[in-house]
Structure formats: structure tokens, C-alpha cells
Amino acid sequence: MSKPENTFSRRDFVHSSAVIAAASAVPVSAVSLAQAATGNDASPIRLGLASYTFRNFTRAQLIASMKQLNVFALNAKDVKDHLPMDAQAEAAALADYAAAGIKLHAAGAIYFAKDEDADIHDKFEYCKRAGIGVIVAGDPTVETLPRIEKFVKQYDIRIAIHNHGPEDKLWPSPLDVLKAVKNMDPRIGCCIDVGHTARAGTDVVKAIRATGPRLFNLHMKDLANFHDKESQVAVGEGIMPVRKMFEALIAIKYNGFVDLEYEIHPDDPMSGVIASFAYMRGVLAGMGYSSAAHA
């Protein structure tokens, strides 16, 4: 098994270069080719990584991979030793990330299985210790939301409910989340998983525009077939309308992160991760932006 901290292979380099070239060929509209090539403007789209992508790898390997990718924004999860719930172990993880220049902006998915103050309190404390402002919530029930809302107000930490597609009886689409939270505190909103959203039959671009100020996080992936959960591919190799999604995010003045969540090949994800970031950066370059400052 190849390890993430290994130097890129020639195959990876060639693949990534080809992806960048293809992505840069996205129509530039009013942006000049020279601007597209140099990326004169800082990108309003901030790229990050969901640590679940490297769920089979240690924190040290995750950090090495992020440095190699030139990505320093992390959506951390309590998987392996990425961001343990235990306070002492969490502190050690935070020290490692700080030393590497990695900033944590979200945590999750975190599951709220109990409608109890103590359980919810512990999860908010976990994120408060890490300085994390967004909790990506996996499965809160409608009945639990008022209790969670109380902690949102107390901690001033946003809750982004993650949709999980047609198999999810609670939150198949971000539009289902919007219906449930529309009259709640404005810090309760959505984490749009674009793959699950498309599989739920919801237009991803329209969902981004509909969620607007209640969109706090976005999990990026790509699919070759919107009706097939097993058709995930590297971003740019499927049919996800990435440029239109970026345009919609810019239109709603989205200030969160686009976090790559590459769920396939968990024992050897690096090639697909490289290609995914190369494609997204290429799209941004084609739009006249530089992603270097954020990713």
C-alpha cells in the first residue's frame, strides 16, 4: 500500500497536469486568457479537506499529505487519531496541526444520537476547545433540534446539518434541512454534500442558491452517474457541474469552505485527491482566480 507522505509518482504528476490542462479549458467568459493563466484575483472559493478522506491513515500521515497537496484548511473528524474527543488527546492533535500551519474550520460529521443535554454539551465543548466554528451534524432528529438550538446560542457555534441522499429518511436533500430550520436560529443550517444531493434528485446549483446564508459547509465529490452511489470518481472525471457550483457559491457570497470528501480507495486515495484538487484549481484559474492563498 502506498503511503500518503510518499513523493508523487510520475503517473500522478502526469495525471494531475492533464487534469489541470483540461480544467483550464473551461470557458473563461469575460475573463481574459492572461488573467486566467495567472489567477490575478484571490479566489472567493476556499478549498479545504475533509479528514474522512484519509480515514485509514494516522494524523501524521494526514498532515504530511496536506502539506504535499498545499492544503491547510481541515474539516476534522474523530476518526483514527485525527481529532479525538478526549480533551488531552485533542490538545495533542491541535498542537500538531498548529505546528504544521493547518487551521481547523469545521468538525464532523458529528452524530447527535441522544436528545440529552450532557451528550450535546460534550460535543459543543469538543469543538470549542478546538476553536471550531462549524459542527457538521450527521443525523439530528427534528425533535432534537430545539435542544441543539439552545447550545448554538450558548456557544455561538453553527450547526450544519449534513444530507445523506435518498437512503437518509431524515435529511435526503439540503432542501429538507431548510424546511425544518427556516424558523430557527440563523446559525442552524446546511452542509451540502453535493454527491448525496444529486442522488436525491435535487439540482445542486439550485440547492446552493436556495440555502444561501444558511449554507455553512460544502462537501465536494463527483459522480459518473447521479443514480448510482457507487459511481464516485475524482472531481472532474464525472458529471458534477463544478464551475456552475462555484459560480452559485460566489453569487450567494458563501464564506465557508469547499471541503473535498473523497470517499473511494480509502487505502490509497492520494491519486484521486491530487486529481480532484488539480481540477478544482484549474476551474478557478479558468474563472480568473488563484486558489493558492486558500489551498
Q: What does this 3D model show about the protein?
A:
This protein is an alpha/beta fold and 295 residues long. It is 41% helix and 17% strand. β4, α5 (117-130) and β5 form a beta-alpha-beta unit. α1 runs parallel beside α11 and α5 (117-130) runs parallel beside α6 (145-155). Mean pLDDT is 88; it is low at 1-39.
| N- to C-terminal distance | 26 Å
- Strand-residue proportion: 15-25%
What is the CA-atom radius of gyration, in angstroms?
Answer: 18 Å
Name the poorly predicted regions.
1-39
Count, helices: 11
The major pleated sheet works out as: 8 strands, parallel, barrel
**Share of residues in helices:** 40-55%
Please give the number of β-strands.
12
Q: Which class best fits the helix and strand makeup?
A: alpha/beta
Order of helix and strand elements from N to C terminus: HHEEHEHEHEHEHEHHEEEHEHE
Spatial order of the strands in the main sheet?
A: 2-3-4-5-6-7-8-11
Question: Mean pLDDT score, rounded?
Answer: 88
Overall form: globular
Brief sketch in words of this structure:
The chain contains 11 helices and 12 strands. Strands 2-3-4-5-6-7-8-11 form an 8-stranded parallel barrel, surrounded by 5 helices. It has a two-stranded parallel ribbon with strand order 1-12. The chain has a two-stranded antiparallel ribbon with strand order 9-10.
Question: Mind sketching the topology for me?
Answer:
Blueprint: H1 10-24, H2 33-38, E1 41-42, E2 46-50, H3 59-69, E3 73-76, H4 87-100, E4 103-110, H5 117-130, E5 134-137, H6 145-155, E6 158-162, H7 174-181, E7 188-193, H8 194-199, H9 204-211, E8 215-220, E9 222-223, E10 232-233, H10 242-251, E11 257-260, H11 270-286, E12 289-290
Parallel strand pairs: 1-12, 2-3, 2-11, 3-4, 4-5, 5-6, 6-7, 7-8, 8-11
Antiparallel strand pairs: 9-10
Helix pairs in contact: 1-11, 3-4, 5-6, 9-10
